[in-house]
Amino acid sequence: MDRHELAAWLRLVLTPGVGRDTARRLLAAFGMPDAVLSQPTSRLADVASAKVARALAQEPPELADALERHLAWLALAPGERHILTLGDTGYPAELLQIADPPVMLQVLGDLETLRHPRRLAIVGSRHPTPQGQENAHEFAKALGEAGVCVVSGLALGVDGAAHEGALEVGGPTIAVVGTGLDRVYPRQHASLARRIAAQGALISEYLLGTPPLSPNFPQRNRIISGLSQGTLVVEAALQSGSLITARVAAEQGREVFAIPGSIHSPQSKGCHSLIRQGAKLVESAQDILEDLRLQAPTATPDHAPALFSDTGDPLLDAMGFDPVSFDVLQSRTGEPTPQLQARLLELELAGQVARLPGGLLQRTGAG
Predict the structure, then answer these.
(1) pLDDT for 212-238, tens place per residue?
(2) Which residue, of 45, 72, 99, is where some domain finishes?
(3) Using alpha carbons only, what angle is made at residue 287 by residues 284 and 288, rounded to the nearest 5 degrees?
(4) Which string of b and e fits 184-193 if b means at least 16 CB within 10 Å?
(5) Residue 327 burial (10 A CB sphere; 0-12, 13-18, 19+)
(6) CATH code where residue 41 lies
């Protein structure tokens, strides 16, 4: 894309009143942005409002700065930084099938990742339980080893764990972010973002310089699900943004999967609600691979995730699957208080048990 063409696209999307829907209608009616901008106001008003038609006749005041910012960003790493528009042959075909495709996409990383034939979204709580965090990581590892590209949103919690799991086994992963690609949000994921760019891709529909604005994150969820053959929700409260992703995925005709959890955990209620609404309950990555008819490797990895396996440790087995209080655990084991506290501390230090809010205890995947 040359300077003139980029300027035309930026002018279109920066014009006040030209949202995604209006931009697509203008492009459908007149062709590329150059052609849109060359139309008389009367013709533009036939497709958009008279107010938008008048706005299109004026160059947005921020256009010059935006153009220079994007050109400079592209020039820093020409093979790794890209801008895709609805008019590009390299634009992801899956996004053209959704109701509200982005007009422009900024991409940092390998464009081939966007053409990966098998992709699955993994989303969930920003504040998962230790088991939820472990499930996201282990499912992503198993899916990555099966040749599936993991798509998520770079957020804290489940998103980050999913990206890490995919990267750990050398699998590709895509992060769909809610800011411009010249910033990383959350900041704690700066190193993770760099590794994703090196092994997959970060993408955003938001122009460079866009800060982390709350409305942008639910909006980007349609891209996460739209790029994927299915969406796995690991943990989610009833008001979680992950349920937005699941709802949009269903509307897009994609499969929705959910991992069940404790009936006592608020972070499981969203998944249970999805299952009641028809999402597919899964206990292992193999459940997803079989449902989507994706073949796993012949050799099953030792760490292929299941919710739990027998540990051989009577205390861990007594804890069961759900968060449990000290008193309940003591009643199950009959252990005296000092010995039980000492053993729990030992398991906690070994990463096999985590303490949850409210004084509850739960086994982690390490157990």
Answers:
(1) 999 999 999 999 999 999 999 999 999
(2) 72
(3) 105
(4) bbeeebeebb
(5) exposed
(6) 1.10.150
